[in-house]
Amino acid sequence: MTVEQNISFSMDLKKIPKKDKQAQVGELLKAVQLEGFEKRKIREMSGGQRQRVALARALAADPKILLLDEPFSSLDENLRCEMADLVRKLHHEMGLTVVMVTHDKEEAMKVSDRIALMKAGEVLQYDKPERMFYHPESRAVADYMGQTNYIFGKVENGRFVSRAVSFETQKAEGEYELMVRPSAITLTVDETERMYQIEEVMFEGETAEILLKYADGKLTVWMLHRDWMKLGVKTGELVGIKIDERQGILFQK
């Protein structure tokens, strides 16, 4: 079967004239960046190209809603990124509503205007990607959306107080855990604040992941590698931290 025959299946059912059908197939192939592939055999195509043909075939039916069930799971990372970009582009250009099922949270955040995070048939949170990442409504959502730190403390007299950070809050009094992303923590070398021991440093290209140990447990910090090098400290030494509490979320114990 050729690419043209594959894409035009729904058009054949509608008895669309051959000339119009060929024109529509050409437009769809251009939209999915496969212009000129009409006569190519499906078996001769790569996995990424086949996914584009499948997308064009779905679009040929002129749907109002496009349903995609883990469409890129079999592709390598680069192709997944390309296809995600393409779907978002088509969504904007064609005014399509796209509902996509995925287990890849990075893919979901990149492609979506809104995310419904589900577990055991229950929607845990339905929100914009930015709010779901920075303002999760539960620990389950926070943990799924990315690496987290939890700092134990108490709210007393309108302040959250912990060994690591203290700030004003409107929360009711009681025991809480402050959820903080690793990127919301900054390291310092202030002699008066050095109470966190550097346990491990992992080089990750442009960034570094630093594991700290302190009296109440451990913290993970992400920072640019060049900023880490400027600190001039190494494994086993003590550092201080500063936390941007605006990026933290308090969960009651």
TrEMBL record:
Alphabetical list of InterPro entries matching this protein: ABC_SmlMolc_Importer, ABC_transporter-like_ATP-bd, ABC_transporter-like_CS, Mo/tungstate-bd_C_term_dom, P-loop_NTPase
KW Transmembrane (keyword) present: no
UniProt key word Nucleotide-binding: yes
Domain of life: Bacteria
SUPFAM superfamilies associated with the record: MOP-like (SSF50331), P-loop containing nucleoside triphosphate hydrolases (SSF52540)
PROSITE patterns for the chain: ABC_TRANSPORTER_1, ABC_TRANSPORTER_2
PANTHER family found in the cross-reference section: SPERMIDINE/PUTRESCINE IMPORT ATP-BINDING PROTEIN POTA, SPERMIDINE_PUTRESCINE IMPORT ATP-BINDING PROTEIN POTA
Protein known as: ABC transporter, ATP-binding protein
Species: Coprococcus comes ATCC 27758
